[in-house]
Write a structure and sequence with these properties.
The protein is an alpha+beta fold and about 400 residues long. It has 2 domains: about 65-175, Rieske [2Fe-2S] iron-sulphur domain (Rieske Iron-sulfur Protein, 3-layer Sandwich), CATH 2.102.10.10; about 190-380, Naphthalene 1,2-dioxygenase Alpha Subunit, Chain A, domain 1 (Alpha-Beta Complex), CATH 3.90.380. About 25% of the residues lie in helices and about 35% in strands. It contains 7 helices and 18 strands. It has an 8-stranded antiparallel sheet. A 4-stranded antiparallel sheet has the order 5-6-7-8, with no helix packed on it. It has a 3-stranded antiparallel sheet with strand order 1-10-9, with no helix packed on it. A hairpin with a 5-residue loop joins β7 (about 135) and β8. α3 (about 210-220) packs antiparallel against α7. The radius of gyration is 30 Å and the shape is globular. The structure holds FE2/S2 (inorganic) cluster and fe (ii) ion. InterPro entries: Cholesterol_7-desaturase, KshA-like_C, Rieske_2Fe-2S, Rieske_2Fe-2S_sf. Pathway: Steroid hormone biosynthesis; dafachronic acid biosynthesis; Hormone biosynthesis. Keywords: 2Fe-2S, Iron, Iron-sulfur, Membrane, Metal-binding, Oxidoreductase, Transmembrane, Transmembrane helix.
C-alpha cells in the first residue's frame, strides 16, 4: 500500500486526536475555571466578611466586674519566689516571704516605676526592687530605703486584698480599689473534712476570647442545653456518642446574700429515647460574685465532687480558665475522671459560640428563653459604672 493511500486514514486519526485534545483542553479549562471561581469567591467572601465584620469585643462592657479572682496557683509562688502576673488589665507581682505568706502587689515600684516582677527579689518577708533596692512588705508598705534614714509615710505600693486557699492565690479586684465587698470563697465541707476531700488534679484552658459575663449568662440560658449539651461526648474529647442523649433539667436562683447566685442542673442519660434514672447526676453551681470563681458540686450515689471553675480576665474579652477538683476520697479515680472530663467536654462546646458572638444589650427573647434578664440585673451590681458598650 502506497503512503498516499494511508493519508486519509492518517488524517482521520489525527482529526480524532485533535478533537479529543480540544475536548480535553475544554474540560480541563472548565474544571480549572470552576476551581478558580470557587477559590476566588471563597477568598472574596472571607475578604468581604472581614470588611463587614463588627469588632465584637466592643459590644461587651468595657469593665472587669468587681470580684475575687484566682490570680495564680499556690505552687507557682514558693517561699522566696517572685512571679510577674498580667491580669485584669494590670501588671502585678506575687511573692512569698520567708514566713510563707503570699501576697500580690502592683508591679510598678512607687519610687521610679521599675517592674518588681522583673528582677525583684525576696529579702526576708519583703520584696526588694532591683533598681534602687527599696524594700516593701506584704502589705505594700515601704520598709527600707538603703540610702535614707527616713521613710515617707505614704511610700506604699498598692497591695491587693489577698487570700490563699484550695491551692490558689485569690485577690479582690475593684476598679476604685475599694476593700472587699464580700469574703473570698470558702467551702465548709472541704475545710472541715480535710481527710474526706482530696485535691485531685487541675485543668488549665488559657486565652479564651470571651467576656466573663457570657459564662454567667450561659447558666441562665436554659434553651441552649439541648442543642449544645444534649448529646453524650467521650470525656475530655469532642467526640459525640450517637444515640446517647443527655436530658437536662436546669434552673437558676438568687442566694440570700446578694453576691451569690445558684444554677442547678439535673442530668440523666437517655439511650435510644429511654431515660435511665440510675445515671442521674445533680450538679449545682454556686456563683460567688460575677463568675471570677464559681463552685460546681456534683452529687450522686457515688459521693460528692467539688470543682472550682475559675476565670481570670487578662483583657475585657479574654479569659484564662482553670478547674481545680476536690473529690471525696472514696470515689474511684476513674469515675471522677469520667464525671469531670464529661463536664469539661460539655463546657468546651460553648467556646465556639462565646468566641464569635456579639453581646446583645437588648436580646430578642421569648417567654421560655430562661431567666437571662434576671441574671443580667443581678450581674449589673458588680459593675461600677454604667455599661458603655457599643450597642449592636
Ligand atoms: S524604682 Fe524601685 S527602688 Fe527605685
Ligand atoms: Fe453551655
Amino acid at each position: 500500500m502506497m503512503l498516499f493511500e494511508l493519508l486519509p486514514l492518517f488524517l482521520q486519526i489525527n482529526a480524532l486526536w485533535i478533537v479529543l485534545i480540544l475536548v480535553s483542553i475544554l474540560v480541563i479549562s472548565l474544571i480549572f475555571n470552576f476551581i478558580l471561581f470557587k477559590w476566588r469567591s471563597s477568598v472574596l467572601r472571607i475578604y468581604s466578611g472581614k470588611k463587614r465584620r463588627v469588632d465584637r469585643h466592643l459590644t461587651y462592657p468595657r469593665q472587669y466586674p468587681c470580684s475575687w479572682y484566682r490570680i495564680c496557683d499556690s505552687d507557682e509562688v514558693n517561699k522566696g519566689q517572685v512571679k510577674h502576673i498580667c491580669a485584669l488589665g494590670q501588671e502585678m507581682v506575687a511573692f512569698r516571704g520567708e514566713d510563707g505568706v503570699a501576697c500580690v502587689l502592683d508591679a510598678f515600684c512607687i519610687h521610679m516605676g521599675a517592674n518588681l516582677g522583673y528582677g525583684g527579689t525576696v529579702v526576708g518577708n519583703c520584696i526588694q526592687c532591683p533598681f534602687h533596692l527599696w524594700e516593701f512588705g506584704t502589705n505594700g508598705v515601704c520598709t527600707k530605703i538603703p540610702y535614707s534614714d527616713k521613710i515617707p509615710p505614704n511610700a506604699n505600693i498598692f497591695a491587693y486584698p489577698c487570700v490563699e486557699k484550695y491551692g490558689m492565690i485569690m485577690i479582690w479586684y475593684h476598679p476604685n480599689r475599694e476593700p472587699p465587698h464580700y469574703d473570698a470563697i470558702s467551702v465548709n465541707d472541704i475545710d472541715d473534712n480535710t481527710n474526706t476531700f482530696v485535691a485531685r488534679g487541675k485543668y488549665k484552658y488559657p486565652n479564651i476570647k470571651m467576656h466573663l459575663q457570657e459564662f454567667a449568662e450561659n447558666s441562665a440560658d436554659s434553651q441552649h442545653f439541648g442543642p449544645l449539651h444534649g448529646t453524650m461526648i467521650i470525656p475530655w474529647t469532642e467526640i459525640l456518642i450517637p444515640f446517647i442523649k443527655i436530658d437536662h433539667t436546669a434552673s437558676f436562683a438568687l442566694g440570700y446574700e446578694k453576691h451569690i447566685a445558684y444554677f442547678y442542673d439535673t442530668a440523666m442519660l437517655k439511650i435510644f429515647g429511654e431515660k435511665y434514672p440510675k445515671t442521674k447526676v445533680d450538679a449545682s453551681i454556686k456563683f460567688y460574685g460575677p463568675g471570677g470563681i464559681t463552685l460546681f458540686q456534683f452529687d450522686g450515689e457515688f459521693g460528692r465532687l467539688y470543682l472550682f471553675h475559675c476565670h481570670t480576665p487578662t483583657d475585657y474579652t479574654c479569659l484564662d480558665v482553670e478547674f481545680l477538683a476536690f473529690i471525696e476520697k472514696k470515689i474511684p479515680r476513674l469515675l471522677s475522671w469520667y464525671i469531670i472530663g464529661n463536664w469539661i467536654a460539655q463546657w468546651k462546646r460553648d467556646i465556639v459560640v462565646w468566641e464569635n458572638k456579639v453581646y446583645k444589650r437588648a436580646p430578642f427573647l421569648v417567654k421560655t428563653d430562661g431567666p437571662i434578664m434576671k441574671m443580667r440585673r443581678w450581674y449589673k451590681e458588680f459593675y461600677v459604672q454604667k455599661e458603655e458598650a457599643f450597642d449592636w
